[in-house]
Design brief:
Elements lengths: L2 H47 L7 E4 L6 H7 L4 H22 L11 E5 L5 H14 L8 E4 L1 H4 L7 H12 L3 E5 L12 H14 L5 E6 L1 H9 L2 H6 L3 E4 L4 H14 L3 E2 L1 H16 L8 H19 L7 H5 E2 L1 H10 L3
């Protein structure tokens, strides 16, 4: 190999190394970017999934049909129905006054629902969201249901991000926060940050977001009184009383009728007596309508276990619930 050829070969080698080095640099840079993206995705995931994840935020579509008929169809809740209708009437008349150019007072659409679990608070919140839509208060009328775990993150500085995400999903509708008193700082974590963020969004989006907070009566009063901003924004309270024995019975029967089931006489008598006993000995955490729904679901499971032993049960047998079915269901569901 002569001198010129050697020089040319050496240049090509180093040029090739340069290209290779550049290529390696680009690959390393891309890997770094991908790693950063993955880290960002993890951060976003932590915001949305920490302390409960997506299950802590439930979006319910706009209620179909007539919301007032839906309200009337609910078992019991006489006082609640009257309060909702009174609120709707007030809004309706104020809207007419506005249309006539008359002076109207400032209206707060936010509400505090107080009462035990299973007393229909979420159901009424969904109905009220639809009423707000029909009255022109809200554009969409859907309901976003959440609790502390859906608003509070595990990491510093991320609770505001998480709370804002939930508020964004509720724009045009109602944000329903169950057991809202858990946001008090004495529960630990960053509840205060969630409350501050929520109050800011209620002000910034006052024409496009309604917030309903719910929980036990005394705890909710303490929660509202803990912050002047909460006191000024939540001025309307609706109390949801526990269902009486006859109302618990009616909830069960209505659910049975919905799916074509009937109770024989002995089963009917046993159910009435059991629900009376449950009401008289219920604890503070009694689930009310939720408990009854669980008993019904367990009853039809017990019926299925009984009928599965038969090769060809009749239509009557498929529809009828016996005292044994009800007794076993009541014994297995805690209250």
């Amino acid at each position: 190999m002569d001198k010129n050829t050697a020089i040319s070969t050496t240049k090509k080698f180093f040029m090739g190394c340069g290209v290779l080095s550049f290529a390696m640099f680009v690959i390393v840079l891309c890997i770094g970017i991908l790693v950063d993206d993955d880290e960002q995705q993890v951060t976003d995931s932590q915001v949305s999934q920490s302390d409960g994840g997506a299950d802590s935020v439930k979006v319910q579509d706009v209620l179909e049909g007539d919301p007032y008929e839906e309200l009337e169809s609910l078992t019991g809740m006489t006082e609640v129905k009257a309060e909702v209708k009174s609120l709707a009437n007030f809004i309706k008349i104020q809207k007419k006054r506005e249309a006539e150019g008359l002076t109207t007072p400032s209206i707060s659409y936010h509400c505090v629902f107080t009462g035990s679990p299973g007393t229909g608070k979420t159901t009424v919140a969904r109905i009220l969201a639809r009423i707000y839509k029909d009255l022109g208060v809200l554009k969409k009328g859907h309901l976003v249901e959440t609790d502390r775990s859906g608003l509070v993150a595990e990491y510093v500085g991320q609770t505001a991000v998480k709370t804002n995400q939930v508020c964004d999903s509720a724009l045009g509708g109602v944000l329903f926060i169950d057991e809202a008193y858990a946001l008090l700082d004495d529960h630990g974590g960053y509840g205060g940050e969630a409350v501050a963020t929520l109050l800011k969004r209620m002000e910034d989006d006052r024409d496009n977001l309604v917030v309903i907070v719910a929980g036990y009566t005394n705890e909710m009063k303490r929660f509202i009184n803990s912050n002047p901003g909460l006191q000024s924004r939540f001025t309307r309270y609706i109390n949801f009383p526990d269902f009486k024995p006859n109302e618990l019975y009616e909830i069960y029967i209505n659910r049975a009728k919905k799916y074509g089931y009937t109770l024989d006489d002995d089963a009917d008598s046993y159910l009435r007596a059991h629900l009376k006993k449950v009401f008289e000995h219920k604890s503070r955490n009694f689930g009310n309508g939720r408990y009854v729904r669980n008993v019904f679901e367990r009853t039809i499971t017990e019926q299925a276990n009984r009928l599965a032993k038969k090769s060809n049960p009749s239509t009557k047998e498929l529809n009828e619930l016996t005292i044994d079915d009800v007794r076993k269901a009541c014994a297995s569901v805690k209250y």
